[in-house]
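Lecture 7 notes: from sequence to structure.

We start with a single chain of 315 residues. Read the sequence below before looking at the structure.
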Amino acid sequence: IYSFISKHAVRQRHNSVWKLDGNINNSTNDLNNQSLKMQLLCPTNDSHIVSGCGFFVTYRKNGNFLTLNSFDSVLNREIEKDKIKTKELSLPPGKGLKTVSCGRSHIIALTNDNTAFAYGLTSLGQCGVVPPRSRILYIVGDAVMEIIGDKFKVFQVSCGLDHTLFLGRNGKVFACGWAADGQTGTGATSFNAVPTPVVGDINEHVVTRIYTGANTSFAITESGLLYAWGNNEYGQLAIESDKPQVVEPRVVDDCSLNGGVRHIAAADTFTTFMTESGQLFTCGYDPGHTDPSPKLRQYNNECYTDVKTGLHYCI
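Now the structure, written as tokens:
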């Protein structure tokens, strides 16, 4: 793990979006001694940012719209080469944003009244709505986003690359989207366009938090149990298994996490767990180790307050 400070982040007094250039994966150089290039992408009046693949979304909590900033044409047909195209995505009147999660090419927005809205590519069912003939849900007209999950209220949402988890207010987990690696936890490996309850003994517990990686899923229960399912080819679920896919939620039983898990940041081939005491543990094939393993490995004795991952890196 490298630490770095951007002088731009310190001196900037108005909200702007910056991109950090530079390869931090498997680097042997000390980034503290390098000049990292921070590229200004766009100014914004929003206070939160979430990124997908080829796009990012900015928004304000309790706001009535999101701002979609696209680099490619997957989510915006009006894209121009080498330019960021900005598009406003409005919610129905009276709806205020609570949080937003992004996948490879889809966006799920959760409002203060616990209603979920979807926008983007849904050919694999990742938006939780039956795909139309065009297979793409482009926002048109007044840009009101597609409503999903009208049969249950959503407490939390988390997007993987092409799948989505929903945590209902009753503590039950629902999933939709691509399931070739078992990442929806429904026991199936075909995609599902309708949010479906996960299966197994996880339903005997009240789930309080959900997390997703590229093709992995995690849930923490009220009693502190950690469940994992999905792609386990590199041991990124922290589960010993002779199969590369875990299609139903299974308990992660590792004494390293006995003190409780505060946060999970899952990438493609590895997962990072931050304990309540601020310790960081990883499993799978991560940039800091050459051998993939389901066994949890502690980075160092530092105390951390947060951790984020991209597909192949950790910050």
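The first strand starts at residue 16 and ends at 21. Keep this in mind for problem set 3.
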